[in-house]
């Protein structure tokens, strides 16, 4: 449990009770402070008996009959002398403009704080309670109740006179009352009643549970959570009552409202006050404990608990023991709990003290986290509630967090948090760096230093680099790679590295780092020297990036030794900067590297290095024979005689064979294959490539006395040479391996050739027939002829104006149309030709536009038919479809004629 602190300045001191010595890890829900200023002065001479709370001010009644109006800080604003004896209760309306006071001597006063309105009455018995109407300021609500031995309701009539009526009596003194809306709740010795002021009816009676407790020593505590929810605390029992409307069919003679107890449970201690807090309850408890030494009961510190009500029990959320002044002499009736609904302020009133409990805000939450050294959570809470916190700054919390981590030796975490906490504050960064230097932890903060915005003083970065240079070369190299070169004085660091290299000149890490520093300084020559010495992979990148080709002309061998593939690619990609001639000259003493360069040059372009092809023959022969033959085949610039001489000297048979055949000496090449290689398959392949009958003859002559060669020839010769030539020359009785299989294969190959030829013939015939049918279908399509068409010769309409008049016409594939009589008459007699023969014509219009001799062999045949055209009934402009019948040559001719035959149809006519 958390404890309220007690201090003379107004805060509560921490309890020294043994049971409270251990700090709770659970954060308290409320915070406490003592109401001081004028209250302190009052309670030094007097004692508090009651208090009521308004949103704007407080009203405090004392044992000496005084009523003080206080502001929320406890300063006295007004003072009223009401009675010489104890003030039992003070009541305020919701507006805070009217106050009711009752005293132990029977005096009752109701008056306006800002008006002359006033009511005075003195009864013959002590008046324990008073409650003014919440809306007393309204003229229609001038009502209040008082309670002693009976409960009286006072109302002002229209004549401004007050009249009273008894609401209840006969069950002992009225000791508590609460008025909310139209409902008045009060408690007497027997229980709690609720009165409906609108219906003038009492709607419930809730009896008290523990009748053994004296009601004057353990009074009932009442509070309204809202207009229909009443909370009752009496002894150790708590009841939550809900006022509900009764259904019309249930009313009869019953009140329109009734009360239902929705929750009821017992507490551990005696209840002195209740207040709602959202859906929870704040309970002020009076505690008695037994001394272990004397075994006698004594008054312990009161407790303020926050509980979560359930239907038949409750759950404790928090519990705080309060060290109020004079708690050892107080009784349960001496404590009161008042609250301000608008601000969730709770006032614990005792005769000698007034303590204010408040809900903890984010600042209080952060205070508690910092107290528990939960800095990360405090920092997160401050960031989330940045707009709401007033007493704390994110930066202050962050710096405290860093200091806490450093104190615990968690240097890396502390350094990492600097990035987030220090942000762009360069001054704080520099301050923290020097702190880390003092504890010897510069390495820890180095990865997190800002490198852009902000930029710290160069001295800061140099200080860290020197720290690494003294103890960690790898870490130093990492920082040089990661940090931009403008963060520090590069020349200072270069000199420091060179000083260390004097002690360890072969240290690769330092040499590489020095090269990087030279690069930052744009001293590329020195950097290149170091990279080449180290054979570092970045040397090529350095050359490309900074165009250092002029610096490497005398370092080509070094580059090739380091990585010949990358070096050659780079040199070939930059021929304009380093010529082929220069590279070849530099590599003259390293023929193996010269070959690598010239080989890749030849792969890229067969002609660029043609002047070196003769040299390459020797290089290939020496270092790369597998690529010699491809080179000889692809190069057209190498001297064949020189190549042949080298190959013969080295006895390169395959290359020699190729060169002999290329030089035209195929017979010598074939002879070398057969005599040197003894490879009949290669000899046959060579003969096939050359396709020379004399070579085949030489091959047969050489093989005729060698059975294995004969077998190879029999298996492969059938498709190129008549095998009979070979078979006739085989000596009788010669034993030939697999002769039967070879002869069978010859017959199968021959049969296969026959089948292939027949298949090809069938395909050709089928294609020809398909094309012929397609041509025929195309030529059989009709051609539309109507009155708009004209004769291409006489330019008159192709159709006669008199449809009954017989006529003849000719239509060509090119859609040109002619009257029959407009065509030239064949020399052998037109009538005979038109009726009995097929005469070939070309379209006159086409013939006039094209060169006739190009088509003299491609003329169309046409048959002419006469037809009597009749006018269709009701159709003054008949149209005709023309279908052509001609031979298969018509489709290929651009403007050939078609034979026509006309038939009369409806609206259109087809000419066939």
TrEMBL record:
Keywords: Autophagy, Cytoplasm, Cytoplasmic vesicle, Endosome, Golgi apparatus, Lysosome, Membrane, Metal-binding, Protein transport, Transport, Zinc, Zinc-finger. It is found in: Cytoplasm, Cytosol; Early endosome membrane; Endosome membrane; Late endosome membrane. Residues 30-359 form the Vps41 beta-propeller domain. Residues 1-33 are annotated as: Disordered. It holds the Pfam family TPR_Vps41. It comes from the Eukaryota. GO terms for molecular function: identical protein binding; microtubule binding; zinc ion binding. Its main location: cytoplasm. Belongs to the VPS41 family. This is Vacuolar protein sorting-associated protein 41 homolog. It comes from Bos taurus (Bovine).
